[in-house]
Amino acid sequence: MDTLNVQANWDEAMARLLAFFAALELGGVEHRTRLATRILDEARRRHEQNPDLAPVETAMDVAAESLEQWFAEALGSSHLRPASRVAAGLFALRVTDAAKHWPDAVLGGPPPPELKAVLSRVSTSTGPDLAISSMTPREMDYGAMEVIAQETWHQFAWAPILQAAALWTAIFFVALYLYDTLFPQ
Amino acid sequence: MSAKFQPENLTADFVGFRRAAFFGAILATTGLGAWLLWRSFLPEGVSPLEWTQLVLFVLLFQQIATGFWLVIFGFTLTVLGGDRAQIGRSIDREPVRTGEAPATAIVLPIFNEDVDRVFLGIEAMWRGLEETGSSKGFDFFILSDSNRPENWLREEMAWLDLCKKLNAFGRIFYRKRRTPRNSKSGNVADFCRRWGAKYRYMIVLDADSVMTGRLLSRLVAMMEGNPRTGLIQTGPQLAFGRTFFRRIQQFASKVYAPLFAAGSNYWHLFASNYWGHNAIIRLHPFMEHCDLPELPEPDTRRRHIFSHDTVEAALMRKAGFDVWFAYTEEGSYEEGPPNLSDSLARDRRWCLGNLQHFWFLFAPGLDFANRFHIWMGVMAYLGSPLWLLFLVTGTIDLAMKHRFSLLSSLPGDPMVQSLGAVQILLLATLALLFVPKILAMLLTLPRAKNYGGVVRLFASTAIETMIWTLLAPAIMLYYTQFVVMNLAGLQVQWSAQNRSDDKGLGLRESFRIFWIPPVCGVLAVTALLLWAPQVLWLLSPILAGWLLAPILAWLTSQATLGDWARRHRLFLIPEEIPALCPEELRFVEEGAADPQDAWNFPYAGLAQAVIDPLTHAVHVALLRQRKQLAEETGEYLEILREKLIEQGPDALQPRQHYALLWDAESLRWLHHEFWSRPTDRLHPWWRQRLREVTEKAGLVA
To answer: Degrees (nearest 5) of the Cα angle B328, B443, B449?
Structure first.
């Protein structure tokens, strides 16, 4: 791979990290650039060991790991799986606007105790505790309508009835026509 | 201050007298009408065709007579100072400031609704409740069955933002059902099973409902004061009308509905109906007695009751609890459909539901009043085919009489004679139809300045009457179609979309939707010109309605025409006058926002869930943990997500998008892949999204 391409790939990784941090609404441009540079340095080291991965892939892997580690420390919740921890942490960030109140804190180093306290108070529950109760329909007596309907459905074969009705209707109209033609008033 | 009304003091004689007076009046009027018609048939003898007309006439005329007497009783009571026997008078009129109210859940079942509008309504009600000082007992539940990804994702974010804004975490809840079984009634039942035991009352709202904090508090106070009451329905007033169609509807509901409501309360008292929203329900008996039974249909797909409300009211009464109509309470609002097409789309659903209620008509143990509610609901739609049949048989009858009169040697035209005899009946029918409007207008006159002044009040009433007179025949045709197809077990297709007020029907679109009435009109005019030209003038209002239906539907769907009417203070309602507008309504009207660009492109919901880290995180965090997926399901989802990232969203079906949105693992994988793949390995659709987020971040794409 030529030098120009290599540089373009690392530029792409840098741009992607900056876009990702901007989408996360982390701090200001200066903070995001500092974070991206730090992650990119780590990504370069890893890339030397595993050059098959594109720089952007390595950089975003490092970013994801950093987020996981930072939220593990910030939330301190052992009951959350690592995969869920980032979602819960970002949820808490969004709820508390912590990234605005502590603009340089997220990924910037160990989370401050006040920030940890704020984040740990957030619950992702969308409903109160369950109070399960039963709600089942009562037996409904529909009266005569149901009896008639059930008897009709189960005792009548509709096809021959409809055929007979159609036949007799046709006969009636033909007879009417003939009568009208033969005996005009 | 006068003594409060105590429902438990109502005696059987009192109730019996009221019902005898009301139904006696309907019976007498219908009997008189039938006798007049029968007499008009007599000179020639009553033929089978005329007997058919007579039966149809009785069925149809009782409907008109019922409406007429509702208004007459309502008018009389209103003029005499209002009905004492109304639930609103069982508590003080003063605003209720009781501190913490009993635990009350305000539930909003939603399905692909306008998200901004839903949450704006909740915020307005929340603020209204805070004003009353008794907000603490109220919790809000947004119960979503939305199956469009955009709606689902936006609902989650809107819920989060609203809770943040109002500091209402733990008071405003959001619940998304994985399996939306039994539509709205199933959604409410699901809430009851999960959390119903925690609350004493439930106030059910529609997505477009707004209720003032004062009314919400008063409803709870009414329930607290009347332990035998199981349900109180309010009379929601239509509001927020911009299109001409909405404006004429809201005007009509404001001017005429109070009299119908007062008349209804006169006879049904504690056996009122439930309209499915803007009502408070005592949860314990509701859960105990009102879960919907299955219908005894042979086809399992038709066993679910589509319109739950009327049946729930009947079951509540059957269980011994009162159902009241708080018709004089101000502060209950909803929105009407913006145009005729949307209105018919709603009627298509209601028609099926109301026809299903027929099963309950003869069910043992139901209150007579509930049977009458059911009957009126069935006839609201069944009346249309009967009306059409009446028109057809009547026209054939008249045409035949005319033909025979020409052939016979008898002097005079029997048709003309019949018409003469029918004139009284025709005048009586017109009186039954239009006297209610005149009475309602007379009663509004003292407050005419709130309706644009006396002249505009008259003008609005006249235009509204003319438009509905012309629209009614077209609506009759569609109701007939709905009834026939529903009875035949066929699905009625309707292409209506949920339109905002701003986007009316196009003229071509209107002709595409409403082609049936003009075709019927042309055929009917041709047939009448050929065989019965004398009847043409008699049927001209109906024929004109059919011929003009697409143009009327197009015209009335326009917001520009509605805006023009509002500027000229036509169809004005008091709520549109700033000094008379409740704070909650003003809040919703002023807060209406334009659609956000971030959600305004195809597959926006899916894109946001995958791309935007915060939206993604919120969505994943809110997904409830699932048990271990079956191996086949896991493999299926893997195939789907790889297809989505490799081939873009067009490669998957909407239900496959939906399946992926329910799977946190898939979303995490997609999120990671989107952000970490080199640009040249992304599908063009994803590449375009990446360009957008990069540009948004202020970076060169």
So the answer is: 95
Where does residue B45 fall: left (phi above 0), alpha (psi -120 to 50 degrees), or beta otherwise? left
Which H/E stretch holds residue B363?
none
Please check whether residue B211 is in contact with residue B80, taking contact to mean a CB–CB distance below 8 angstroms. no
Query: Which is nearest to B331 in space by CA: B222, B262, B236, B247?
Result: B236
Nearest to B222 by CA among B85, B90, B86: B90
H helix intervals, B491-648: 507-513, 516-531, 536-556, 559-567, 583-591, 604-610, 613-622, 631-647
Contact B282, B223 (CB under 8 A): yes
Q: If 0-12 CB within 10 Å is exposed, 13-18 middle and 19+ buried, where does residue B424 land? A: middle
Q: Which residues contact B378 (CB under 8 A, 6 or more apart)?
A: B354, B355, B357, B358, B361
**Where do we find the tokens 């609350």?**
B199
As a whole number of Å, the end-to-end CA separation of chain B is 74
pTM confidence score = 0.91
pLDDT tens per residue across span B80-110: 999 999 999 999 887 556 567 899 999 999 9
- The answer to whether the Cβ–Cβ distance between B359 and A138 falls below 8 Å is no
**Which of B620, B625, B670 has the most A C-beta neighbours within 10 Å, making it the best mutation to test the interface with A?**
B620
pLDDT tens sequence across B385-427: 999 999 999 888 887 777 666 655 444 555 555 555 567 778 8
**Does some domain include residue A108?**
yes
Provide the shortest C-alpha distance from residue A131 to chain B (in Å).
5
For residue B396, the number of C-alpha atoms closer than 13 Å in the C-beta half-sphere is 12
Buried-exposed string B77-112: b where 16+ CB fall within 10 A, e elsewhere: bbeeeebebbbbbbbeeeebeeeebebbbbbbbbbb
Phi/psi of residue A151, nearest 5 degrees? -65, -40
In chain B the domains, ranked by start, together with CATH numbers, are 98-373 (3.90.550.10), 603-696 (no CATH)
Tell me the backbone φ, ψ of residue B234, rounded to 5 degrees.
Answer: -95, 165
Q: Are residues A107 and A163 in the same domain?
A: no
Q: Which of B134, B129, B236 is nearest to B575 (CA)?
A: B236
B691 touches chain A (CB under 8 A): no
Give the whole-angstrom CA distance, residue A181 versus residue B625.
Answer: 79
Q: What single string gives the DSSP state of each residue in B603-626?
A: THHHHHHHS-HHHHHHHHHHSPPP
Q: How far is CA B393 from CA B104, B484, B519, B530, in A?
A: 54, 18, 20, 17
Residues 485-524 in B contacting A (C-alpha not used; CB under 8 Å): none
Residues A154, A102, single domain; the answer is: no
In-domain check, residue A130: no
In chain A, the number of structural domains is: 2
Name the residue range of residue A107's domain: 3-120
Integer Cα distance of B223 and B200 in angstroms? 10
Res B496 pLDDT > 80: no
d(CA A148, CA A47): 80
CB contact under 8 A, A130 and B194: yes
Is position A132 within any domain? no
Burial of B679 (0-12, 13-18, 19+ CB in 10 A): middle
Q: Kindly report the backbone phi and psi dihedral angles of residue B397, in degrees, each rounded to the nearest multiple of 5, phi listed first.
A: -60, -50
Judge: A60–B672 Cβ closer than 8 Å, yes or no.
yes
- Domain identity same for A149 and A109: no
* Size of chain A in residues: 185
Residues A14 and A62 in one domain: yes
C-alpha–C-alpha distance, residues B283 and B278, integer Å? 15
Residue B215 and residue B572: Cα distance in Å, rounded? Answer: 23
pLDDT of res. B186: 94
**B198 in contact with A, Cβ within 8 Å:** yes
Q: Are A96 and A118 in contact (CB under 8 A)?
A: yes
One domain, residues A105 and A21: yes
